[in-house]
Amino acid sequence: MNKKRDYFFAVCILFCIGLLLWFDRNKRFTQSEGDSKSPSPELTENTETYAMEIPASWKEEIDSYNRIDATIVVPDCIRNKGFLRVNTKNKEVNYEDVLPLLEDYYHPRKTMEDERCIQYLGEDNMRLNFIKQNYEVLSLYSHFYDYVSMAYRDKLAEGYNRDCYPVDRDLESFTLNECDDRIMNLCKSIGIEGEIDIVHHTLDYRTMEAEAEELHEDGSRTKPDYYWSDADSCYYCTFSQTCNGIPIIPNYNLQSSGDIINASEHICLLNKERFVSFRIGKIYDIQYENEYEELMAFQDIVERYRKYAGMAKQDYETVITDITMRVFMVNQGDGTYRAVPIWIFYGDVKFEGETWRGRQVVFIDAMTGEML
């Protein structure tokens, strides 16, 4: 009897350990392997924090054209303590350490090197470019990417079909965990450390086959001459370094009205067999200071949005569906960057008499309340 009881307890313990590991692997925020850095410094007792009252959602009708019906997404650390001040520098991209990840499929070989660009070519018309400009950019392209781009169209224009593809759903033969492991290996090889925020758009081959359209020079569209199979199923991923648990997005998104919520400095397309394409932008060496930034109260931020909405002359209806935080890195002019938390009011625009919908994006500095 005691042996049976001991066996039962052992099975329970193993089950609990497995469950904890499963939950840890399925967090959206993934810790880069081999990273020993703490996400924040050891704070002294005298460090002044700035806890904030931020609701989980907000509903309000501002006027006949503007309303808010939004979920508010912000890390608990912001609610409980505030935003730790950060100064950072760009890190160099370790492009040579990426080559072993590409060897088995592409067999890359160096074909060009000058002051601005280093290029490798490989199988499937692969091009790996390391470009040195104001900052370093590493990009990979292969021929199969052309077919995926015929099937997955995420630009807000004619043919937009991103909603046909689910977010964060496992493929039958290539799981999200396997995908994240590959992205973590890529991050480790190029020097990205700390927590990584990954968003996966799941591109099943059957959906891509049904959606694929090849655009010709005369403006006509036909089905591409390509045989789709399960091996073609892939994930289109955006991934970002995080600061205070908040994804960092490129400053050029201030000029964009696209999918700001999932905007990122880094993008990759991969399937079970290989990286199909990627683009790696700025990489930051994030250093936290022993001081919190003072942020405006959330109610005051909403008031700034009200004023903006009331001033805008419009003949369309705006509904804010998401309110969230992102971080911009602002160049200080001395080679360092300061992390600035930004509130994003994001939603839909519907024009009178039109079936087409646009996007409403408003950026508000979380510290000053300034419209950006």
The gist of it:
This protein is an alpha+beta fold. It has 2 domains: 49-83 and 295-365, no CATH class; 92-282, no CATH class.
Describe the structure in your own words.
- The protein is of the alpha+beta class and 372 residues long.
- The protein has two domains: 49-83 and 295-365, no CATH class; 92-282, no CATH class.
- The protein is 22% helix and 36% strand.
- It is built from seven helices and 19 strands.
- It has helices spanning 2-25, 76-80, 99-106, 144-151, 176-190, 205-211, 298-311; strands at 29-31, 57-61, 66-73, 83-90, 109-113, 117-122, 126-132, 136-141, 195-203, 214-215, 221-222, 234-243, 246-247, 266-271, 275-280, 284-293, 316-331, 337-351, 357-365.
- Strands 1, 5, 6, 7, 8, 9, 12, 13, 14 and 15 form a ten-stranded antiparallel sheet that branches. Strands 2, 3, 4, 16, 17, 18 and 19 form a seven-stranded mixed sheet that branches.
- A hairpin with a 2-residue loop joins strand 12 and strand 13 (246-247).
- The longest helix has 24 residues, at 2-25.
- The protein is globular and about 55 Å long.
- 30% of the residues are buried.
- The model is unreliable at 1-5, 7-27 and 33-41 (pLDDT under 50).
